[in-house]
Task: inverse folding
């Protein structure tokens, strides 16, 4: 079935971390600079007061490149977010999401360094397609190489040195992030990671796998919950993206990497639990369909189960069904609703919040 122009545009946008419709503000003599961004007006509705309320924000970024010679290209990207649900003067309203620079040399590949996505996200991104929620079974910001992270040096090759179209190899090194005042859960020692994904011809199928291993910091090793010397993760994923249909599934396991927190009853005493799961099993699945008139319904499931947690044993960390839909008025404007239906029991082991959440939003993007 032939895709409509709108469906092609929407699928292309969803497959990219930034809008393909970015505004070109400079392009001359081999130097190019694109500006992109979005305004997300959003509200959460939930019985949990800590979640319920305004979630609006503005995001802005640029992508630039310069042609050094016939084979060598320099590039850089920066992305910034400003919260729109805080009072004026609040110091916690802004954050840098991405900031990196690098060089690309033809079929040899590219190398960049800075704040960028961890290599495990290359596979985790398969299921990170829900209108608002999702991507939280094991991927977390500044949690080793699972999400956006500091100090990552990344090598990428998207055609396996020009030999195999669609075979994408990534290698990554992350330097230690420890003595800058960050929370223990967001620290990391030196680590390495890799991922390999393959787009299978014109079938719409992509398979992928990733692995990462990092030293843990002294503060992390001294925790009473999760004491291993190394943080380790592996992940596998599969997606189908063709004929307006999007299907994806991902499974991952981590060791001493996934943060846990909550309150557990230990010997009849309510005890605060904070640290890392010795083992975590993560699973995500999603199905979507893009109608030619702009509607994109979505259904998914996310689960994360911590294993062998000191004083607790096994415990569900994340567990919900997600039902949502996005309507694209055009390439710049969309509206969405996303309903997170919690599957955590009322007496879950860590006393985690199990209230449902509904997100409503209107998005302008360029």
Result:
């Amino acid at each position: 079935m032939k895709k409509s122009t709108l469906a092609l545009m929407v699928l292309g946008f969803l497959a990219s971390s930034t809008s393909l419709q970015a505004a070109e503000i400079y392009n001359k003599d081999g130097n190019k600079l694109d500006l992109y961004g979005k305004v997300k007006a959003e509200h959460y509705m939930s019985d949990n007061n800590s979640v319920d309320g305004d979630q609006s924000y503005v995001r802005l970024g640029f992508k630039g490149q310069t042609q050094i010679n016939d084979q060598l290209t320099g590039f850089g990207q920066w992305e910034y977010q400003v919260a729109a649900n805080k009072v004026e003067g609040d110091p916690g309203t802004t954050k840098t999401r991405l900031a990196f620079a690098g060089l690309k040399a033809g079929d040899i590949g590219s190398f960049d360094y800075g704040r960028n996505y961890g290599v495990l996200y290359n596979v985790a991104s398969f299921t990170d397609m829900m209108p608002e929620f999702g991507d939280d079974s094991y991927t977390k910001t500044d949690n080793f190489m699972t999400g956006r992270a500091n100090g990552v040096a990344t090598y990428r090759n998207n055609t396996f040195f020009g030999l195999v179209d669609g075979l994408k190899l990534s290698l990554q090194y992350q330097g230690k992030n420890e003595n800058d005042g960050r929370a223990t859960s967001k620290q990391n020692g030196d680590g390495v990671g890799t991922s390999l994904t393959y787009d299978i011809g014109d079938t719409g199928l992509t398979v992928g796998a990733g692995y990462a291993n990092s030293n843990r910091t002294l503060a992390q090793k001294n925790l009473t919950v999760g004491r291993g010397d190394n943080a380790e993760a592996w992940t596998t994923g599969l997606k189908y993206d063709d004929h307006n249909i999007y299907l994806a599934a991902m499974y991952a396991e981590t060791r001493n990497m996934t943060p846990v927190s909550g309150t557990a009853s230990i010997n009849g005493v309510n005890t605060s639990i904070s640290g890392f799961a010795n083992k975590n099993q993560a699973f995500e699945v999603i199905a979507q369909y893009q109608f030619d008139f702009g509607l994109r319904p979505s259904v998914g499931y996310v689960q994360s189960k911590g294993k062998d947690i000191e004083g607790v044993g096994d415990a569900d960390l994340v567990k919900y069904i997600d039902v949502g839909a996005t309507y694209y008025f055009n390439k710049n404007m969309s509206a969405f609703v996303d309903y997170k239906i919690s599957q955590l029991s009322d007496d879950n082991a860590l006393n985690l919040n199990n209230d449902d959440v509904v997100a409503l939003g209107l998005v302008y993007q360029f």
Summary: The domain at 100-360 is CATH 2.40.160.10 (Porin). DSSP finds three helices and 20 strands in the chain. The chain has one domain: 100-360.
